[in-house]
C-alpha cells in the first residue's frame, strides 16, 4: 500500500489494531489492507518484586496501555495526517499464565502473580500426579491450589479468575472470555471438546470439596473461544480506559484475547501440525504443534494450544535475555560516560556480532541468567551469575558469547525432549523475538543449540502485537471462509521473506560441550540461591 491508499484505509476505519502487554514493553501495531504494519506505538515497563512476588500494579497496566495507544495515534497522525478514530477490529494479547483473582464486585483480591513466580511447587506437583498431566508452576490452577494449600482467606471470595489478556479484554468489553491458547495456561484443555477438561475440573472440585468453598472451579474461569469467534465489542467504558482523548469510536469487534504463545504461533505461521517456533526475549518458549500425543508426562513441557485449538507441546523458560540486557545496559552507561553517542540498536548489534568471534568453548567462562526461578532445572529462585577461572579467556567476544549461549540453555533442555527423545519431525524452527533482531547471530546460535535449521522472517521483531492484529483481522476478513491455517498460508505469509541457517557440526558439538559445563555450573547457582539472600 502506498501512503495515499493507507491514509484512505485508516480514514474509512478499515485498519486493524493489535496490542500486546509483554514483559518489558507494551506494544501496539496497526495493520493495513495487506496486513503489514502501518503504524506502531510502545511503552516500556517492568515488573516489580514485592514481598516475594513478581507483580505489576494494575494501575500501571492502564497507564501503559494509554501511553502506548497515544504513541500509536501520534505515529498515525505524523505519517498519514489523519487522526485515528475508527477501526475494523482489534485484539489484546499479554503474557500467559499467572493469577488474577477477583471478588464479587470486580475487586482484585491479591496482587497479580505473574508467570515469573515459582512459589507453587507443591501445588503443581500434586496436580500433575492427580491429573496425570503436567501442571507447570505458573499455570493459574497451580496458583489457585497453592493459595488453597496456604490457607489464604481470599480463596473463598473468588468469583472470577483470569490472565492478564483476559483481564484487559474484560475491562474493554465487559466479556469474561479467553482465547483457547491462553485458556490452556489456566486449566488443561480437552482437544476433543476444545474446552476445559471436564474430567480434571471434576477431579479438582473433589480434591478441595472439604474446604466448603461456595464455587465450582468452572464457574471461576473465563469462557473458552477459538480464533475467528467474536469475543465482544469495545464499550464506551473501554474507550475511556484506552484512549484518553475519547476520539476512538466504541463498537469495535474484538477477537478472543490470547497469550503471547498463541500470538507467537500466529506471527510465525506455526499453527499447522509439526510446525515449530521459538520466541526468545525476556523469557523464551519453543513450541511444536502435535499430531499425536506425547509418550510420557514430562515436567519440562507444557501442553497448550494453537489459537484454533490444535494441541501444542511447549518448552517454557522463565529466563532468557533479562540478564544479558542488564549487562548491555552497563555498556550503554559506559558509552554515555565516555561521551559516545551510540543508539540502543547499534549497541545490541555490535555486541551480538562480536560474540561470533568468541572461542568454541566461550573461553571457559560460565554464566547463569536466572533473574527468577527456573522450574526446568529445579531452581525456585534466581541469582544471575558470571564465573570465570583464573586461566579463562576473558575478553568481550567470549563474554558476549557465553551470555547468548546461556540464554538458550534451558530452552534447549526442553526442546531436546521433543526433537530428540520424542523424535517429532520438524523441518525447521522459526525464530522470532528480540533475540533474533541482529541478523544471523541469534539464529545461528539457536541452530547450533537445537541441531535444527532455523528460519527467521523479516517480521521476526514484530512479535505478538502483530500476531494478535492478524487474529483480529482473521475475525473480520477470513473466519467465515477459511481455517486459520489457510488464512495465514494463503493471505498473510504467501510472499513472506525468510532466511535460513543450517546447523554446523562443529558448532553443534561446541554447544553440547557448553551444556555440560552449564549443568555443572548449576551447582554454583544452587549455592548462590541458598546463601546469597
Automatic annotation (TrEMBL):
This is ATPase. The keyword Repeat does not apply. Residues 277-472 form the Carbohydrate kinase FGGY C-terminal domain. Belongs to the FGGY kinase family. CDD domains: ASKHA_NBD_FGGY_BaXK-like (cd07809). One of its GO terms (biological process) is carbohydrate metabolic process. It comes from the Bacteria.
